[in-house]
Amino acid sequence: MNQRILVDVAVAAIQAKIGITPAVGVVLGSGLGAFAEELRDAVTVPYTEIPHWPVSTAIGHAGQLVAGYVGDAPVVVLSGRAHLYEGYTAQQATFATRVLHTLGAHSMVFTNAAGGINLSYSQGALVALSDHINLQGTNPLIGHNDDHWGPRFPDMTEAYSLAYRQIARDAAKELGFTLPEGVYAALSGPNYETPAEIRFLRTIGADLVGMSTVPEVIVANHMRMKVLAISCVTNMAAGVLDQKIDHEEVLETGRQVRSRFTSLLKAVLPQLKG
Ligand code: HPA
Predict the structure, then answer these.
(1) Are 155 and 220 in contact (CB under 8 A)?
(2) How much is the pLDDT for 59?
C-alpha cells in the first residue's frame, strides 16, 4: 500500500493522544533512552498503540514515543528505532521519520551508539556527524518516488546541517567538553565488524561505524528536514584495542555518558529553529 496512507493513519493516532505539534523529532539510540525522562509535560505513547509502527526488538530500546517540552521547544522523542538487522526494510526503518515530519517537525536529531574508528576518540566520547558513507546495501528511497515528500534525486551535500553542528559544538564547549566531528559508516549488522573491515573503513574515510541512522538521515533530507546527529562512542571499533566487543559494554557506556548526553540535548534542542 502507498506508504503515505499508512503514515497518515499513524499520525492521526498520535495526534489524538499528544496535544502538541513538535518542532523537532529526536531518535534515541541504544542505551541512550534516558533522555526521554527529561521532557516537561510528557505524554507517552507505546509503539504498540500506533498503527503500522515497526516495533523494535533490539535490547536497550524502550519502544515508546514521548511528546513534551525541552525548555520552550515542543519535541517528540522516540525511544527505540527499527533496524535493518531486525529484518525491517529500509522503508519500515524510516517510517518514524516520515511520521515526525508529517506531525510538523522541521528538524531531526538522531543519536546512536557507534564504534570508534578514529584513534583520537576514546570510549564514551560524543561526536557530531559531519557526513556519512552508506554501506548498508539498500536505500529507503528505492522504488516509487512520492513527489509530495521530496525529489527523485535528493541532494546530500549538507546532509548534516552545518549551522546545527555549530550550535552543538558551542553548547558542548559551554558545558565543558569538546564535541568533535566525524564521518559515520553504516553497515547492516548485526555482527560487529572484523578488524579487516575496520581497517577498510578507516581507509575510505570513516571515523565511526554503526548499524543505524543513515536510512533515517536520507529520508529526512528527502523531505528537506534539517538534521543533527550525535554518536556516542560506546566502544573502540574491532581490532583497535586488544579486546572483544559485546552489547552489554555498548549499553553500559551509554549509561555512563547519560548526564553529558542529556545536558547537551537539553541545551541544543531549543536552539534548533528550522
Ligand atoms: N560497530 C557497529 N555498531 C556499533 C558498534 C560497533 O563497534 N558499537 C555500537 N554500535
Answers:
(1) no
(2) 64
- pLDDT tens digits, residue range 120-165? 999 999 999 999 999 999 999 999 999 999 999 999 999 999 999 9
Domain count, the chain: 1
Closest residue CA from atom 2 of ligand 1: 210
Residue of 234, 214, 12, 238 whose CA lies nearest to 123 = 234
Instruction: Return the residue whose CA atom lies nearest to atom 7 of ligand 1.
Output: 115
pLDDT, tens digit (0-9, with 9 covering 90-100), for 66-111: 999 999 999 999 999 999 999 999 999 999 999 999 999 999 999 9
208 CA distance to ligand 1 centroid (A)?
A: 8
Q: Which domain holds residue 114?
A: 3-272
Take residue 89 and report the three cell numbers written for it: 526494510
We report the CATH number of the domain holding residue 116 as 3.40.50.1580
210 lines ligand 1 (CB under 6 A): yes
- pTM, whole model, 2 decimals? 0.96
Nearest to 165 by CA among 257, 271, 72, 258: 271
